[in-house]
Design a protein that fits this description.
heterodimer, A: about 130 residues, alpha/beta, five-stranded parallel beta sheet, about 20% strand, B: about 900 residues, alpha+beta, seven-stranded mixed beta sheet, six-stranded antiparallel beta sheet
Chain lengths: ~130, ~900
């Protein structure tokens, strides 16, 4: 996993948050962001996204974050892709749950758009063995 | 004692019973008295009758005698005619027996024919007698009315008929007698002075009445009750008052057969009834006493019963009140026996549990509690929240508290359990939690967009902004941040309060954590023109805590300090370890905390309310949360502040004493120094300096005290002030040098007159190691002591104590104080390392070590040149074969401190080349 982090598959049902986050990650972080409005859309776009990282909102109607992750894991392209969850719900029990699902870490909402990219990069580097 | 209506019944009963009893007594008494009276009367009457017979007999006798005399005279007259020798007859007592007073013979016309005594003229006898005798031809004697003579004496006639041969009336023979004769029987009877005998003529004239010695003759009793009775009944008895003397007498009378007389005997009632009266009095007395006794008893009984009933009523009333309180209480209550069995449960509790009281009684409170919650202690007023299993299977949440009720002897009498139904409360609480969580989440979602947008715009990502727009965006952004912080704080508060805040406790190194927090707030500090300085000790200070939450606390304190600091001032953050606590202090030079705010400072949404502070952008929850977090981590958070000077917020957390570091080093014996100084402040100062320098210090204020101290403990060195009260420092030093035990103790003089002392002790160069003046130079002092001590220490044997139990290490160190120098090794590895670094005079070896056996150290010991002797000090026994390798074996349990020291000394002195030597 010593790859460079360039492309992020981002799933978030709230349109405004999606807009802001995409802008923050692209303009400030320099990432390429494939934004999806639902788990379903993510499944459709995942095969061609070539994402280095999955960034998933947790609370979503129909398919929530963890369910989306499970489904993505079924796809060969995203079977091993590292994942970070983004959520307002950060109870200790829940964080443990996310970790158990294989998440690198959790980014909490509301996030600071100017520093979120750095945070993500930091998490990525740490996971890469830094 | 209220006298209630009810009591009236029992009182009435008692009164009635008493009255009945009294009535009974009196009726019995009356009956008895009446009986006694009757008996007395009967006795009197019996006596009367006896006496009456006697009197009658006597009267009969008298009259018979008279009669006989008359008969004799008549016979003579009939035979001899008129020449009857009457006088002769009179004088012949065999005939008249002295009773006849005179005799007269009268013809049919009544004229006296012959008389024993000369009569006056041609007197006749009483015509009544003539009439009576001429009419009656039965030859019955006639007794006439008594007549009083001129000389006062009385006489009464008794006459017999003279009958002609042809049967016609021929006259009468009369004998006069003194009725008094009839009464002569009186004294022969038992009659008393008040009694009386009465002999009455049938027509009522008294022939004789005698009472005592008083005699009256001729009274007319015609209309007396006696005569009235006698006319009706020949014999009888009556009680009558004497007309002569007014004495009430019991009269018994009888009518004589042969003579027309009534004989009556009367006994005076009073004397007769005297005995009876006494008895009656006694009876009445007894009856009265009994009555009074009964009355008193009844009264007492009444009172007692009323009182008892009242008491019982009170008891019942109280019981009822308690029962009502118990039953109607709004909380569930149960009374149980000491063994826990429920004796009574009130209505509310039964409702809560869904059982009938019968089903609850006999079970214990715990049997209703869910097994999982049974452990929670709830004794003596401490309430515990426990879940109860209802009959219908539902769970009820309850606040349960049990108190113990003791009797007067102090033994447990009952337990009272109070159960509050908090199911509803719990439900609402849960709803509240869920609501707060949900709302927080809901609030965060739009805030994410807002923050994001504002952040990007402010960050210039959407292009450059005109200044006005820039300002506005900054305002929006900072308030958005503030809102986010507020939501976070609210959620934190809620988590803490509902006990849902999870802490990940681990060993946290404080200094780096503080440094990180300070670094994170660097920008904020710069904005306010404030500098943050961290003071931390060299040695790492560790605490058991949740690093993130602790950071949150530190950040909160820092941000407060920064906010309230004036520009260009510094916030001091100090880390220290004291008394097993990691202490952190955050000091600012701000306005301080006003007096009226001190109590409220840790409360929610408290801000020393001034527009000034509100603008500083706090949420008002920070300190509340920080305090809660620190307390949950087992520490305390507090502050000191002075208005106008600033504030220091401090918290302490239990520190972690790193084991690994000490295990190798062990509790080294800090050399002991005696400070001889009379000024307490200076003494303390020197002690502090020595403490910092790594020495223990004892303080002695006078030379005498110094001697005492030295007699008890061994000192590595001494500081002596020359100016001491009483014996001065020079004298002390001199005397010390003379005594063997204290000859070698190094002395450092710390005195204002050091130079003078030096001159005094000149020549006694050995006496003092160093001369220091005042004011005291700490570095010089410590250095001098160090040199003195190390020189002294070099004398002491160095022992390696291989022992993993820190308690035993400490004990050994304490024993060794001043005698040996101990180094400790807690593992085989450490022991080997120590042996490689230093030389030892002896090894004290425990066999049970964490990473092996003490025997594993032996090769390292034996490799030394020369190898130090080994004393095994262990719980295990040493096999005989191994004993040859060691100098001595001591078991931990069987060895006293003195024995340990003695054994070590023995072993040391047995190896002559080591004793007292230091290589």
């Amino acid at each position: 996993m010593a790859r460079e982090l360039r492309r992020i598959l981002y799933v978030e049902d709230e349109a405004d948050i999606r807009t802001v986050a995409k802008m923050a990650l692209e303009a400030v972080g320099g990432f390429e962001v494939i934004a999806c409005a639902s788990g379903e859309e993510a499944l459709r776009l995942a095969p061609t996204a070539r994402a280095d990282l999955l960034l998933l909102d947790v609370m979503m109607p129909a398919m929530d974050g963890p369910s989306t992750l499970c489904a993505l894991r079924e796809l060969p392209e995203t079977a091993d892709t590292p994942v970070i969850f983004m959520t307002a719900k950060v109870q200790a029990a829940e964080i443990a749950e996310y970790r158990a699902l294989g998440a690198l870490d959790v980014v909490s909402k509301p996030f600071d758009p100017m520093s979120v990219s750095e945070d993500i990069r930091r998490i990525w580097n740490r996971a890469s063995g830094g | 004692m209220a006298f209630e209506r009810r009591y009236l019944y029992s009182s009435t009963a008692i009164v009635a019973a008493a009255l009945l009893l009294i009535a009974l007594i009196w009726s019995i008494t009356s009956e008895r008295v009446a009986y006694e009276r009757a008996m007395a009367v009967k006795d009197a009457r019996d006596d009367n009758r006896n006496i009456g017979s006697l009197v009658e007999e006597h009267t009969q006798g008298v009259l018979s005698a008279l009669n006989q005399g008359l008969a004799f005279v008549r016979l003579q007259y009939m035979r001899d005619g008129a020449h009857v020798p009457l006088l002769q007859v009179l004088q012949d007592s065999s005939i008249n027996r002295g009773l006849i007073g005179s005799i007269e013979i009268a013809g049919p016309d009544g004229r006296i024919v012959e008389a024993s005594a000369p009569t006056v003229g041609n007197a006749g006898i009483d015509p009544a007698i003539v009439a009576a005798l001429s009419a009656d031809d039965t030859d019955a004697p006639f007794i006439g009315l008594p007549r009083q003579e001129g000389d006062g004496t009385w006489r009464a006639p008794i006459a017999r008929r003279l009958t002609q041969p042809d049967g016609s009336f021929g006259g009468a023979v009369l004998a006069w007698f003194d009725p008094v004769e009839l009464g002569n029987v009186y004294r022969r009877t038992s009659l008393g002075e008040e009694d009386a005998i009465l002999i009455l003529h049938r027509d009522g004239r008294a022939l004789l009445r005698r009472s005592g010695d008083r005699v009256s003759i001729g009274d007319d009793y015609g209309d007396a009750p006696l005569m009235k009775a006698a006319r009706q009944e020949p014999q009888g008895s009556l009680i009558t008052r004497g007309r002569v003397d007014n004495v009430i007498r019991i009269l018994d009378y009888t009518t004589m057969r042969d003579y027309p007389l009534i004989v009556a005997v009367g006994t005076a009632e009073d004397p007769a009834l005297g005995g009876y009266r006494r008895k009656a009095r006694d009876y009445y007395t007894i009856a009265s006493v009994a009555t009074i006794a009964i009355a008193v008893l009844a009264l007492v009984l009444m009172r007692a019963i009323v009182r008892q009933r009242a008491a019982v009523d009170d008891l019942v009333r109280n019981e009822r009140r308690f029962r009502a309180t118990f039953d109607q209480a709004f909380v569930g209550m149960a009374q149980s026996a000491p063994d826990g069995q429920i004796l009574q449960a009130n209505q509310k509790l039964c409702e809560m549990l869904g059982y009938e009281e019968d089903e609850v009684r006999g079970r214990t409170m715990d049997s209703f509690v869910l097994p999982a919650d049974r452990d929670i202690p709830r004794h003596d007023g401490r309430a515990a929240q426990q879940r109860l299993l209802r009959k219908d299977g539902r769970i009820a949440w309850a606040d349960v508290a049990t108190t113990v009720v003791r009797d007067s002897a102090g033994a447990v009498d009952r337990c009272v359990t109070v159960v509050h139904d908090i199911t509803e409360f719990k439900r609402i609480d849960r709803m509240k939690s869920e609501f707060v969580s949900m709302v927080s989440h809901e609030l965060r979602t739009p805030l994410t967009s807002i923050r994001g947008s504002l952040g990007l715009v402010a960050g210039g990502v959407a292009g450059a902004l005109p200044e006005a727009a820039r300002n506005l965006v900054d305002i929006a952004k900072s308030n958005c941040e503030r809102l986010i912080r507020l939501i976070n704080d609210i959620l934190d508060t809620e988590k803490i309060e509902s006990g849902k805040m999870a802490f990940e406790i681990a060993e946290v190194e404080m200094a780096p954590l503080l440094a990180a927090a300070i670094a994170a707030n660097q920008g904020f500090a710069e904005q306010h023109g404030v500098m943050v300085v961290l003071h931390a000790p060299q040695e790492p200070v560790r605490a058991m805590a949740d690093a993130d939450r602790l950071t949150q606390v530190v950040t909160n304190l820092l941000s407060n300090a920064i906010k309230f600091s004036p520009p260009d001032s510094a916030v001091q953050v100090t880390l220290s370890e004291a008394a097993g606590n990691a202490q952190v202090e955050v000091q600012d030079r701000g306005p301080g905390i006003p007096h009226e705010f001190r109590d409220r400072i840790f409360r929610k949404f408290s801000q020393a309310d001034s527009s000034d502070s509100r603008a500083r952008g706090g949420t008002g929850l920070g300190l509340n949360i920080s305090k809660a977090i620190v307390e949950k981590l087992g520490g305390t958070l507090g502050f000191t502040s002075e208005v106008g000077q600033g504030s220091i917020f401090h918290f302490g957390l239990p520190a972690v004493v790193p084991r690994t570091a000490t295990a190798a080093m062990g509790p080294r014996t800090r050399p002991l120094v005696l400070v001889v100084e009379d000024d307490p402040d200076i003494a303390r100062l020197i002690a502090m300096m020595l403490d910092k320098g790594g020495f223990e210090a004892d303080i002695a204020r006078t030379a005498a005290h110094a001697r005492e101290h030295m007699a008890q403990r061994h000192y590595a060195a001494m500081t002596v002030d020359l100016k001491l009260p009483g014996e001065d420092g020079v004298a002390l030093i001199r005397s010390m040098r003379r005594e063997r035990p204290t000859r070698e103790v190094p002395v450092i003089v710390v005195s204002a007159v050091a130079d003078e002392g030096r001159i005094q002790l000149n020549g006694e160069a050995h006496a003092v190691a160093e001369w220091l003046g005042k004011p005291i130079d700490e570095n010089r002092l410590v250095r001098a002591v160090r040199e003195a001590v190390s020189g002294e220490e070099a004398q002491r044997p160095r022992i390696l104590h291989v022992e993993d139990d820190p308690d035993i290490q400490r004990v050994a160190a304490a024993i060794a104080q001043g005698i040996f120098h101990f180094e400790f090794a807690g593992t085989v590895a450490e022991a080997r390392s120590a042996l490689a670094q230093w030389r030892f005079d002896l090894v004290l070896l425990d066999l049970r070590l964490p990473d092996g056996s003490g025997w594993d150290v032996m090769p390292a010991i034996e490799a030394q040149d020369p190898p130090p002797p080994v004393v095994v000090f262990s719980v295990d026994d040493v096999p005989v074969a191994a004993r040859s390798r060691v100098a001595a074996v001591l078991t931990k349990t069987g060895t006293s401190n003195e024995k340990l020291v003695a054994t070590i000394r023995e072993v040391l002195s047995a190896t002559p080349e080591r004793a007292g030597m230091r290589s």
